[in-house]
Amino acid sequence: MTALLDIKNYRLDIGTFDGPVHVLKGINLTVNRGDTLGIVGESGSGKTVLVRSVLGIGPRNSKVVEGSISFDGQDITNLPEKDWTKIRGIRISMIFQDPMTYLNPLFTIGRQISDVIAAHEKAAGQGVSSKAARRARTEELLDQVGLPNPSMLYSQYPHQLSGGMRQRILIAMALAGKPDILIADEPTTALDVTVQAQVLDLINSLVEKLNLTVIMISHDIGAIATVAKRCAVMYKGEIVEQGMTQDILNRPQHEYTQRLLAAVPDIDVPPERVAAEVAEAKPAKRGNLLEAIDLKKVYRTQAGADFTAVNSISLAVKTGEIFGVVGESGSGKSTLARMLMRLIEPTSGDIIFDGQNISGLSGEPLRQMRRHMQFVFQNPHSALNGRHTIGDAIGEPLRIQTNMSRRDIEARAEALLDIVQLPKMFKYRYPHELSGGQKQRVCIARAIALNPRLLILDEPTSALDISVQAQVLDFLQELRSELNLTYVFISHNLAVIRQICDRTIVMKRGEIVEQGDTEQIFLAPREEYTKALIESGRKTSQAANLQA
Amino acid sequence: MLTFAFRKLLTLVGTMIGIAALTFLITNVAPGDPARLVAGPNATEDMVATIRTEYGLDKSLPEQFIVYMGELVRGDLGTSIVTTRPVLEEVMRYAPATLELVFVAMFLGIVIGVPLGMLSAVYKDGPLDQVTRIFSISGVAIPAFWFGILLQLLFSVDLEWLPVSGRLPLVTRPPEFVTGLLLVDSLIAGNFSTFWTSLQHIILPAIVLSFPCLASILRVNRAEMIEVLQSDYIVAARAHGISSFRIIALYALKNAMLPTLAMIGLRFGWMLGSTVLVETVFDWPGIGLYAVSSALSSDFKPVVGVTLMIGFFFIVANTLVDLAYAWIDPRLRKA
Amino acid sequence: MTAHPMTPIDTPMEDTRPLTFRERHASQIRQWRLYAHMFRKSFSSMLGLSLVVLFLILAAIGPLIVPYPEAASGAINMSAKLQPPSSTYWFGTDEMGADIFSRVIIGARTSLWIGVVITGIAAIVGITLGIIAGYRGGWVRAVIMRVTELFLAVPGLALALAIVAALGPGITNCVLALAIVWWPGYVRLVEAKTLSIKEELFIESARSIGAKTPWILWHHILPNCMSPIIVKMSMDMGMAILSAASLGFIGLGAQPPSPEWGAMISVARTYMPDWWWYSLFPGAAIFLTVLGFNLLGDGLRDILDPRSRDR
Amino acid sequence: MFGKIIRNIAIAGLLASSVLGTPASAFERTDKGNVIVFGGRQAIPVLDPHIRYDWSTRMMQQAVYDGLVKYEGDPAVIKPWLAEKWETSEDGKTWTFHLVKNAKFHNGDPVTAEAIRYSFERGLKLNKGVAWMLKDFLAPEGISVVDDYTVKFELKAPYTPFLSFLPWWYIVNPAQVKANEVDGDYGQKWLTDNEAGSGPFKLGRWEPNVLYEAEAVADYWKGWPQGEENRPAGVIYKIIREPAAQKAALQRGEADIVEGLTPDDYVQIARAKGIAIEDHKGMTTFGIKFNTQQGPTADINLRKAIAYAMDYDALIQVYNGAASLETSPIPDAMRGHIDVPGIPRQDLAKAKEYLAKSGYPNGGITLPYVHVAGLEEARRIGLVLLDSLKPLNINVEIKPEQWPNMVANGSKVETSAAMTSVYTTPVSTDPDAVAYQYHKNSWGQYFAMMFYDNPKVTEMIDKARSSSNWDERAKLYADIQTQIVADQPEVFGMLQNRRWARRDYLQGFQFSPVRFTGEVDIYPLWVKAE
């Protein structure tokens, strides 16, 4: 039996102003009928370019330098556009990462799917079937991906549906042509934890029911392990390791794979190192650095209704601890964090920092207060002004809050770069020239420039790759002990929370569901919601599959 | 929905009053004395004074303003001092000609601009794109009055294909008034030769008027098409095997039409403003020409009236664009 | 750094060699080279740049190179009126016997002045109001935007016509009128841009370190608004010249003997078609200048606006 | 309805090919006969004869209305019209007119003495338009109906030029006007675009700002001079604003006669086949009026210096020769005109001599020159002036103004510019019409922007206008002319020729200098078919 998909020594360059970039460097990959192959890699590894090349929708300005891709015995490396219509979407189809942007917002679900069906029928040379027939087929597909009430969905628009439903619709579209190969490009990344698990379940059940051949790419090893029997690890345009998923997870051969696996925070592993440290510090007398009393934020929606983002939250952060806030998107954790900083005005309630009520401050006193508490934002890509050099960005708090001379600020900026382990040369660079992890370090350097006492970290690692995330988390902990900082750490990732937080609150719809010692919460959750949260986190975590 | 419509209406009325106040004040700060113009060259002071009193020009500016706003609220745009007729009546008489011209120009702009924009987006950076780029920017850059004169010389004087100016030949009686748009009225009346001659008359001014509009529709459509074609859902549509033609002509175009529509609304107002030039060159008896001739005789009530009217049409056009937006974009239907 | 001591980890610089200019500014140099590269690739952008450069050169040295510089100040030579283009009079002569070539070339300076003043006033007023409206929000924004919308609800040319008609014809009034109708465009552009930038994390970040509003406006919002502003200003240079010429054509703009192109056409149109050169050359001058600024602006948009950037 | 429209579009498309490129016809032919097309630049906003007059308005008024008398010919002569004869009393205060018996209004009503009385009363009471001509001498009560066909005017004081104004007082039908009266407005609203006249034409299509049609009255009471068989079916006055478009329209035969081409156009179009130029010496004087009361130009030596520096030949060249220099303030075609000896001509030596005597011996001043915005020739004369004054080191700032603004500024000494260019067309052939411009009572009027004040001249003007002895008047006017020239209140410019370009088949053109620029008596026009 010949391989269904055979990629041989495939090399691809993308031409840029700075010369060609070698995106894929000699990829060799075979997929047989019935295979489920996972490709793991972090951003920039070339995995998306690879699978898009298989569909003939690779990036512009790209050039195949060497090698070939053949599908079912046919060489499709440089297939003309008109021949692609017989393959694309019919024999090979694809589901995409972000279900919102991949559905056309202006057309109904039914229209989009039945158009795909019509296109396939046309490509197959048979006449396009009637509208009613296509509708029936569409509803059948919608039913197949587990969507309720297909006939109503048919005339709905993408914006009326939830993220999970949209992802199911994309899957339905991909299945419309009864494809030989289904490529899934990060199908769960943009979804909430609980929804992720459902979508992975769906893919698994479809593989079983329809005997699909699946190539799934993801940065999330847990997700790969859930679906794929075989697995390939990509790093900087190369496949560094491939084999059975179980083998790779248990006995990674390549140094990168090992590093990657080690970096994945495990929800079920108690954080020994951190726990030890905390235990050590415990005897010291610790007062409350930050307190929030009955904080509330109510937004008025355009329709005129009130929407309570944060409802009567009280909390106390002790000096020197890492205080975790965990919750799904929409739970109000970001609003809470910004209120603590007075970046958003609370509707009611008090914030007490170091014994001083700061909720009534404004103007100069507020500005003065700001040097003691700093914020690190979720997305380092937009938290830095693209027009300022790194040196300017780090020096900015100093220029605003102190009257240090220009030279002193320069020197201090260099010192700060040192602290965050970046070369001094970087002060002349611009943000877009830095990687995500480097940018987040710059953000941290900026935050600690004024020697604050409290850092509020709003999902500081969620925009970063896993290996980078691990580095940043380690670095944050080092920094805390070096500079005697107190953290409020906000995350949706339970594993990360467990790894570093001393105490944690769990939030849902603006309210605290559960709070207490982190370990306690993880070992013996009291509330149903917390349990469900931990369970779905576990499902996508690597450990679950290793044990399976 | 009702409150939405009501709010829209309220804004419209507010804007109209604002425009009226704005133009009235702007046009009345100057020392011009229209009464003297209409009184005639030899008129004595007391004759000029008669006319001033008749038109309330002897009152102080704030008083005149209050009177004017009072009349305006009652739907009265005042009286032209030169023609002695109510401004509203005159504007209504000239408006159809202008609207007809603008509609035809807009039609040309859309049917040429949208496909060309689409093509140059698809063949981005190709020779066609470069040609349309220079063509479209020329459209914005070319002085309408100059271009109009050149076209007149070429098509009317040299080639004698098209009439020089006006809406109809002299002896042709306009068809029975239904809409005031000659092209439509003549068809309703079944009078084809009138239809044909009025088409011949409208074609040159419409081309001149549509050229800059065509250009910006083309540019916007191109830019949006390029962006839409790079968007995720187009990539997805390709991946699902939908043909390129269908993707471009249906999927991408519909998405790109949204900003294009906004541009069309904007250009509609711009066109109304440009009629002051084009109508002057082509002797097109519309509100633009009326405004120019009134402005040149310091007869300001008509100028304010025309400005208001243009503002009104502009707001109406933009409201239509809003509705079209909601019609195309399901996300806006429920607010 | 008064209240807090330096951080303990204050390591000395390991490499004391001062960086060269090239090294320090490698990022900017690369950026500019990329811009230049992209710009050069586009024929139309280069055409626009050439036209604008030519226009600027003529505006700078025009009076020095023309054969009859006195033609611009109203010298007449009735015996040589309405001569067709020849080796003596490259673009022919006008109805008073003045050399059209000289007048057209010297007119570049008038046009440059018109463009710069209108665009300059409009941009300064518009950017200031726009940035305030966008950042402050609330009633300040409501007031500014209401007024802006009011102006935008009336086509600029119609409003400018009314203003000049009231103020009386003349180049100063014409420029003033156009500046009055021109600024709202900037308000809308800058306000929209500010609104979106305001939501960016780096603004929140600046606030979190205690930056005051003027600092944020000047250091964060304005630089990020600059690309579309530069593009708009480039295009507006052309459009302002065109609008002034349009008013001149109606008879409300620049007045003789000032060598303004629109006013020249206004006179020249009565000499069509038999003395075609009279209106052709000033018209072509307007056209090429406006075309140049627009092509330049379009080219700038391509390289400055990341939306249309490929890589 | 839409289905119908769409079907019709399809049929129109089929017809299209056959109609494309229809050659433009000459004069417009209708089933009733030929329609002459007059292309003009100026609209006719108000037709009411007692409200407004300017050349285009009066041309149409003359077409649809009759006056008691009418100006005809060159030089202009007053001809009996509705009045077949008239007599004046000894003291010159009472005028009695006897009307023709066959005249009738377009609705069939006879033109009676009461109609005459009503029309004059209406004109005086409305106090607009023509009222200024008579209101100082005639009160509404002074008009009386003697019998159905006799009307009597009793003036407040003897006023010799009385008759010379009567051609511009048109007679309206009182019955029609009263029937359309609204709120005692004397039918103003209705007469704006309707007529109640007895003239050779009645109104046809009336599309303001586009075209105005006059249809010939078949049985006009006075008959048609070109003969009933030749008379046109009507005349269309079409607005063509651009000279270039006018020229094109004439060349293509879309218009049969046009006015307002540029001087160069006339020269050029004269060579075209089938086109004739009407070129007549007019009565419109052009002067650059100095503000003699205030500013540098209050200095007579400076005024003289400027007058001697002026390049008069260039004035003629501006009109391509179609003009003649003024030899006196009073135009040549007017009775009482003399060639004033020593009227300044360009003489730089003399100019410098006068300048040396003035308060600005070295020049170095900038004087404004105001002209009506859009008046092409006035602008060009400004350029000539600018060039002429360069040797005196006097700079000229050319300032176009809207007519009302210019007049408003020129109505007061304080706001009047140093130099203002003014074209003046006297409304009658009596020399008083010009001389009175230099009377102190005229201050504030546009033609008196020089604020000329010479008590001697004022006195002579008063004397001349009340005298009924022509010899005495002629002598007085000669002295007046000489004295005015000596005082140099203005640069005496030129009399521009009146010109029209017409198709050569257009016959019956009669020029009369007393009509305004552009104004044509359309009554005798006809088309000679080949």
Describe the fold and architecture.
The complex is a heterotetramer of chains A (548), B (335), C (311) and D (530). Chain A has 548 residues and is of the alpha/beta class. Chain A has two domains: 5-263, Rossmann fold (3-Layer(aba) Sandwich); 265-354 and 453-460 and 488-548, P-loop containing nucleotide triphosphate hydrolases (Rossmann fold, 3-Layer(aba) Sandwich). In chain A, 39% of the residues lie in helices and 25% in strands. Chain A is built from 22 helices and 20 strands. In chain A, strands 6-7-8-3-9-10 form a six-stranded mixed β-sheet, with helices on both faces. Chain B has 335 residues and is mainly alpha-helical. Chain B folds into two domains: 2-73, no CATH class; 91-166 and 204-286 and 306-332, Orthogonal Bundle (MetI-like fold). Chain B is built from 13 helices and no strands. Chain B has helices spanning 2-28, 34-39, 45-54, 61-73, 87-122, 127-141, 144-158, 182-188, 192-229, 232-239, 244-282, 287-296, 300-328. In chain B, helix 5 (87-122) packs antiparallel against helix 6 (127-141) and helix 7 (144-158) packs across helix 11 (244-282). The model of chain B has no long low-confidence stretch (mean pLDDT 82). Chain C is mostly helical. Chain C is built from eleven helices and no strands. Chain C has helices at residues 21-24, 26-41, 43-65, 100-136, 138-152, 156-167, 171-198, 201-208, 213-250, 261-268, 276-304. In chain C, helix 4 packs antiparallel against helix 5 (138-152), helix 4 (100-136) packs parallel to helix 11 and helix 9 (213-250) runs parallel beside helix 10 (261-268). The longest helix of chain C is centred in the last third of the chain and has 38 residues, at 213-250. Mean pLDDT of chain C is 82; it is low at 1-14. By secondary structure, chain D is α+β, with helices and mostly antiparallel strands. In chain D, 30% of the residues lie in helices and 23% in strands. The model of chain D is unreliable at 12-26 (pLDDT under 50). Chains in contact: A-B, A-C, B-C, B-D, C-D. The interface between B and C is large, with 57 and 49 residues.
